[in-house]
Specification:
The protein has 130 residues and is of the alpha+beta class. It has one domain: VSR Endonuclease (Endonuclease, Chain A, 3-Layer(aba) Sandwich). Helices cover 38% and strands 22% of the residues. It has helices spanning 7-19, 23-32, 84-96, 112-124, and strands spanning 43-50, 58-66, 71-76, 100-105. Strand 3, helix 3 and strand 4 form a beta-alpha-beta unit.
Amino acid sequence: MSGKFDFKVIKKLAKELRNNSTESEKLFWKELRGRRLSGYKFLRQHPIIYKGNLTRYNFFIADYYCDQKKTIIELDGPIHESSEDYDEFRDRELAEIGLCVIRIRNEELKNMKKVLERIVNIFHQIPDYK
């Protein structure tokens, strides 16, 4: 990178994450893709760039992102047990730019119907952004 903002690097990282999805991520994506959840469109491993300029940028890659509701859904596997401080920091940063974060533990996916109902209930409380 020549010191300038290079979105290609972020896109490549997001693509690598999509290509190396966990089993939980694959299972959950089957429920979201193609507007299967109440007609909402989701993007998988979607880069969120904020507080950036031509030489410096901050970004997170959201597991799942719904632009209509400005909401990120994060699946939390075992790695998140040791990264609670970082997850809290990340959620605060995202809230500052107007994004809602829903965290779902992998084990919650055993009751997929309940997880999906929870998401839809939260979405009913959030205005649409178009």
